[in-house]
């Protein structure tokens, strides 16, 4: 029963987050004055890339390729789409002229608004309640995602009101969000079958099995990329310090 619900939830999340990211990129292109032709090509290329990426992860997860390595010498396939996906998305946004132009049209409200959807991680708590996901992973990952989403909401509210502490809340939202991912990845590895499986030995985690494997293989890298874009925007918009 939980697996059926998880399939619907994960696949719906993939479509929703991809569509939202594309919509934000379109907003950035319009606000930055990017030409219609360049914008259309960029958005179509990004949409095709996201679709291909998401489609490819499903069969890999079903085949067990995205499980943590069995030995220290085995390739860490589970981490490749997580880290590689985030790096590729960041590179497209920061190392290409079109990407930089699109991102210049977005501000922290757009970037923080995307992070609000992190509350979807509460789904792990449902898996814990049904006995399908071990608490050692579900509790820190689920609560961490909810806290990350709430921190993003607070930052978004402060930005909308142009509050004096808006920048501080954006920084906090990024710190909370990235720390949550670090904890989730760590507890995920420790509770899943592999050479570092030290927790929940009697009931291994299913986070690296289909369909939940699409969280670390697709959803998490997209969120990480938006964190990196936000941090870069903070650096770019750093207030000028006036000497006393």
Automatic annotation (TrEMBL):
<keyword id="KW-0472">Membrane</keyword>
<keyword id="KW-1133">Transmembrane helix</keyword>
<feature type="transmembrane region" description="Helical">
    <location>
        <begin position="6"/>
        <end position="27"/>
    </location>
</feature>
<feature type="transmembrane region" description="Helical">
    <location>
        <begin position="137"/>
        <end position="159"/>
    </location>
</feature>
<feature type="transmembrane region" description="Helical">
    <location>
        <begin position="39"/>
        <end position="57"/>
    </location>
</feature>
<feature type="transmembrane region" description="Helical">
    <location>
        <begin position="171"/>
        <end position="190"/>
    </location>
</feature>
<protein>
    <submittedName>
        <fullName>Uncharacterized protein</fullName>
    </submittedName>
</protein>
<feature type="transmembrane region" description="Helical">
    <location>
        <begin position="77"/>
        <end position="99"/>
    </location>
</feature>
<feature type="transmembrane region" description="Helical">
    <location>
        <begin position="210"/>
        <end position="229"/>
    </location>
</feature>
<keyword id="KW-0812">Transmembrane</keyword>
<feature type="transmembrane region" description="Helical">
    <location>
        <begin position="111"/>
        <end position="131"/>
    </location>
</feature>
